[in-house]
Specification:
Number of strands: 7
Shape: globular
Helix content: 40-55%
Radius of gyration: 23 Å
Number of helices: 16
Strand order of the largest sheet: 2-3-4-1-5
Strand content: 5-15%
Length: about 375
């Protein structure tokens, strides 16, 4: 009862301060009515469906609260049974599942498997980290960058990529016009602040990061830096993933050199690639490379994604069939793999399309 009185008092104070708008209050009330109806009264509903009335509003309703008060609101929210032993049942942090998925479902990427697991595991187990975790994925399209980002989301959050603690930004889709960069700066800063206020361990994914305007990345640089807080909000438990094609050619050259010299692909180490990726990222055209994110050395790990070979494409094809409940024979898998394009032309060694197009491509081989 005391917590409810506190909540009502906070709502009254915030209403006087004009922190809430009537439609936001209505959305919050609708959400909690649905939550109580679905979970306490066990009504006939789907509490996690993609319905605006079933989700905590994503606007500015928390931006007027200091984190102290949002903590009190979170405690009240948990008292309704919406939280777990970890403190927030939206967050699962399943490191065992992350390790398994990276080993079983990600093919031909021993470096990404190792670096991503160690980085995420170390960050999760160190609640006193002095900055957010920032990873930069590099490689050809189709080598698994988006796939790994989804694996991370699926194992750190109950609702995976659809979690209200996960936000995906696609550079050419969300920020298409250079002339509007000042508008985008405000929108992006506000979105990140609101997300962290509602979910301190937030995962931000920036796809096609090389197409981001440098001013746009510099606008959010403080959120990835070594600060206790920015305007009273701590971002130290946030995770930032940048996905980029920058460095793809350099990665492929190293892999090809290893193949020509008769060395095993699995012998390629981070020492063979990390310095190349840093150099490529600093010299490449585009906003990502020109931003203070690079000059400020705020990226914790550059993660290389190697070009996929024929054998890896077959494994991806097998997974695509298995996802449809089918068990293909070796001949069928060979047919799918042979239908892909490979480079260099002389050796036909690396798949030019990766695994991205395989789920659609196998439609041609179904009876």
């Amino acid at each position: 009862m005391f917590s409810i009185v506190i909540l009502l008092s906070l709502l009254a104070v915030s209403a006087d301060a004009d922190f809430f708008q009537l439609d936001s209050i209505s959305n919050v009330s609708t959400y909690y009515f649905n939550y109580i109806y679905c979970n306490i009264w066990e009504g006939d509903c789907q509490p996690h469906q993609d319905d605006a009335t079933q989700q905590v509003p994503t606007g500015n309703i928390w931006s007027g609260f200091p984190q102290y008060y949002t903590g009190m609101l979170t405690a009240w929210y948990c008292s309704l049974g919406q939280c777990c032993d970890s403190g927030d049942c939206r967050i699962t942090n399943n490191i065992t599942g992350l390790e398994r998925d990276l080993q079983v479902n990600l093919h031909g990427q021993h470096l990404a498997q190792s670096v991503v697991l160690k980085a995420i595991q170390g960050f999760i187990k160190n609640p006193e980290s002095n900055k957010p975790l920032t990873l930069s994925f590099h490689g050809w399209s189709g080598t698994g960058k988006n796939f790994v980002a989804r694996i991370v989301a699926d194992n750190l959050y109950r609702d995976g990529i659809k979690s209200e603690c996960v936000r995906l930004f696609i550079a050419p889709f969300h920020f298409p016009h250079a002339r509007l960069v000042d508008v985008y700066k405000g929108q992006l800063r506000e979105a990140i602040r609101d997300m962290v206020l509602r979910c301190p361990q937030t995962l931000f994914i920036f796809d096609e990061a090389e197409k981001l305007h440098p001013g746009l990345i510099d606008a959010i640089k403080p959120y990835m830096d070594h600060y206790d807080n920015v305007d009273g909000v701590s971002y130290r438990r946030a995770i930032f993933l940048f996905l980029s094609n920058i460095g793809g050619a350099a990665i492929n050259e190293v892999a090809l050199d290893f193949w020509h010299s008769g060395q095993n692909r699995e012998d390629i180490g981070m020492e063979d690639l990390e310095h190349l990726l840093r150099a490529e990222a600093m010299e490449a055209e585009g906003g990502f490379a020109q931003s203070e994110l690079m000059s400020g050395h705020l990226i914790d790990f550059f993660v290389p994604f190697l070009p996929l070979e024929y054998r890896h494409v077959k494994l991806c094809a097998h997974d695509a069939y298995a996802a449809r409940g089918l068990q293909p024979d070796e001949g069928t898998l060979d047919e799918v793999a042979k239908a892909m394009l490979y480079v260099p032309k002389e050796e036909k060694l690396f798949s030019a399309q990766g695994c991205k197009s395989i789920p659609q491509r196998i439609n041609f081989f179904l009876p």
